[in-house]
Amino acid sequence: EAGVTQFPSHSVIEKGQTVTLRCDPISGHDNLYWYRRVMGKEIKFLLHFVKESKQDESGMPNNRFLAERTGGTYSTLKVQPAELEDSGVYFCASSHGHDRGGEQYFGPGTRLTVT
Amino acid sequence: AQSVTQLDSQVPVFEEAPVELRCNYSSSVSVYLFWYVQYPNQGLQLLLKYLSGSTLVKGINGFEAEFNKSQTSFHLRKPSVHISDTAEYFCAVSDRDNYGQNFVFGPGTRLSVLP
Known about the structure:
The complex is a heterodimer. Chain A is mostly beta strands.
């Protein structure tokens, strides 16, 4: 079974540019989560999809971040325009829809550097 | 709201020595507890989790953790570490009563196993 994949693995962009991160969850997982780790601090929740619907986006830092999950499959996270403080590692995770307290399976992350 | 504290940001230990990585949490609701590990250049992998039942939980790679409700702790232990255990370890909680709830992570503990 393929795990959670993320693309790209690294991205270096200039301040003001746009970047789109992609996450492919494990097939059949209804729940998809985005997290971010900034500068070696704790991993923080950004948002949660259940299928194609945003269940919780309370962790999104501001309106420069836009997440979508068209068709309930893969998800994209767009940052526009990027700022220096957006640098960090963006993790995606997925979990089965009926597994209360269940494991979230994490991707390898996308390391974003804004210069 | 929940919060997780990992008091030790870095733990150096010699190979074959025992190790304990500390985790304390704060929550106004009942939680599930998890330990994840991130090896270099990889995603987060679940080590073990506490949902209910026995407070001593055994995980992969010889790790175990004990849930202590009165001390709100979930410390991770291994009796004899290997070089391959060098990684970053994250303690996390999720709301037991909120289906599909996101994780709240601690800041991580970097374990370095020395030869």
